[in-house]
Amino acid sequence: MLEKIINFILAIFGIKPILRLTHPEEDIAPYQTAANTDAAAIRLKWLVDWKVPKENWDIFIGNVQVVVFDYWTPEIFAKFPTFSGKAPAFTFAENGQRYIYILAPWLNAGIFAHENGHTSWFMLTEDQKRGFSEAYDKVKKDPLIVYLFDKKPYGNPDDEKDIEDHADIYRFLAEKMPAPLKPFYPLLF
Question: Which of 13, 21, 127, 177 would bridge 173 by S-S if both were Cys, CB 3.0 to 4.6 A apart?
Fold first, then answer.
């Protein structure tokens, strides 16, 4: 509330508002390994800090299995031949179960948020995905959206722009994202 008042006063004097990501990017933790990292505790931190409704926690705990690796194995590259190995995490579905594969040093609440942003994306129908694109086009000039993608040091490839932007908006802005986008994040709000 105080931030809104300050931004209002700044706007009166023609000064840009104070912008801040709800959940800034965390540093990697090089000491983390698959053996010494508690993925369940980190997932719980995501559920709490991103304010996922408690009635939906079991869905993300029971239906999204997390597998932590110290390095990407040859079996992963064989199973996913288009995977370059550059991403520290990815999500996929197999036999009705969603999975998050992640490298241990990158395991943090923000990565859970991003990957579960993808999980919510895959809950959308094709019409809802088009609806997200339309709603997103209308809010791309929102100061917080502009700030997010100006601040973010990496871009999303055009062929994956909507799905990656969808996940990044949730990961970094969460409940402060523009209201027209929230309906496109099933179970997260």
Answer: 177
User: Shortest CA distance to 120 belongs to which of 10, 69, 46?
Assistant: 46
d(CA 127, CA 107): 32
- Cα dihedral 84, 96, 103, 89, rounded to 10, equals 50
DSSP secondary structure, 94-109, as one string: ETTEEEEEEEGGG-SH
Instruction: Provide the pairing of β-strand 89-94 with 97-103.
Output: antiparallel
Per-residue burial over 36-70, b = 16 or more CB atoms within 10 Å of its CB, e = otherwise = ebebeebbebbbeebebeeeeeebbeeebebebbe
Compute the chain's Rg from CA coordinates: 18
- The per-residue pLDDT for range 59-89, each reduced to its tens digit, is 999 999 999 999 999 999 999 999 999 999 9
Kindly report, residue by residue over 156-182, the tens digit of the pLDDT: 555 567 888 999 999 999 999 999 999
Host H or E run for residue 66: strand 64-69
Give me the long-range contacts of 13-20 (CB less than 8 A, separation at least 24).
16/143, 17/143, 19/143, 19/144, 19/147
- Our separate counts of H helices and E strands in the chain read 8, 3
Answer yes or no: are the C-beta atoms of 162 and 133 closer than 8 Å: yes
Look up residue 170 and give its amino acid.
Y
